[in-house]
Amino acid sequence: MCHVSVGHVARAFEEAGIPSVVIMSKVFKDRTAAMNPARILLTPHPMGRPLSAPFDVEKQREVLKAGLNLLETATDGGTVVEYDQPYRTGPFVDQPDRR
Amino acid sequence: MSTDNRNSANEEAAKETFDEFRSSFSYGSRTDLLFKFLKSGSEQLADDFLTEILDLTGDLIDNGDTAPIVEAIVRAQSEAYSGPGNFEYDSKPFAILDQPVSESKIALLTTTGHFAHGDDPKPFGMDGLTQEQVVKMTSEFGKADPVLSEIPTTTSANETMVRHGGYDIRATAADRNVSLPIDRMNELADEGVIGEFVSPAYSFVGLASQLRLRKEIAPAWAAKAKAGGAQAAVLIPI
Fewer CB within 10 Å: N-end or C-end of chain B? Predict the structure, then answer.
């Protein structure tokens, strides 16, 4: 239901004049895209991990930047873009037990 | 009836069907929110997925490659949750960004159920609910209005709480940036990639009644974000 809630929030933000980008796992693409939020970035990640695995800082930055880029480049509502780099599993250098 | 026959009848009655087994992962005796999709999809999907996962686990213990397992999970989740939900809209509201991202004040709002320590949103007036408790209250959450939590962007990871009965919170409990990227947004602001990270960040439990959210609550939140200076927003559902 979160992916429906975000659709309603995204539409309200656009209607209020605030451009928005939804960054989400592609698992729920059909449900959210059917609501036509302005911009969606889909990640190939399991449910519960829309940006990355824990402590994959590099991936988190990449995904966020890709989403932010959509704020500038999308020209129509209902724009859906796939971030196609695969989900990576740790451990990562920023993981607390590896410091 | 002989004792043997009675025992046989009892065993037959207690025998769990595969359909009951797969359904038990979704708010049942084997609740696992990462795999609750086993109930949402078809019985065949659950059968195929479990068979594939066991096969891939055999490979994993030999080669350590987790990627095929992740792909299998994503593929099965995607199939189980395929198709539009109850809300479909033809119109496409679209606001244009008036300045570059590097000059924009950007807000963050997630449906992940995060909140700042000491600022429990107290669903149903109840303070200090545990994750285990809210997992058992999903039907109540689904009928209730969502409560928006405000999380100052200076809030430390240790002071950031998460509680949500609809998904597996393990990853974001370990690292909030998995779904509430406060640290990354602060860094991007420091580096000038974004003009400003609007404080506070917002989060709510997206498992909520949709009708009032659509008509009243989401527009009120948008007005709040605008009053707080937001010129654009990153929205992250879970």
Answer: N
β B105-110/B196-197 pair status? parallel
Helix (H, G, I), strand (E, B) or coil at A23: strand
Instruction: Yes or no: say if B230 and B198 are a contact pair by the CB < 8 Å rule.
Output: yes
Chain segment A38-59, per-residue pLDDT in tens: 999 999 999 999 999 999 999 9
Closest chain A residue to B113, measured at CA: A2
Which of chain B's residues have a Cβ under 8 Å away from the Cβ of A11?
Answer: 89, 93, 214, 218
Residues 76-95 of B with CB under 8 A from A: 77-78, 81-95
Partners of A80 in the beta sheet? A40
End-to-end CA distance of chain B: 55
- Domain assignments of chain B as residue spans, ordered by start: 3-80, 101-236
- Concatenated DSSP letters for B114-126? EEETT----GGG-
Q: Where are the domains of chain A?
A: 2-86
Whether the upstream peptide bond of residue A91 has omega within 30° of 0, thus cis, is yes
Percent of chain B with pLDDT over 90: 94
Nearest to B120 by CA among B159, B158, B165: B159
Helix B182-190 × helix A57-73 angle, to 10°: 70
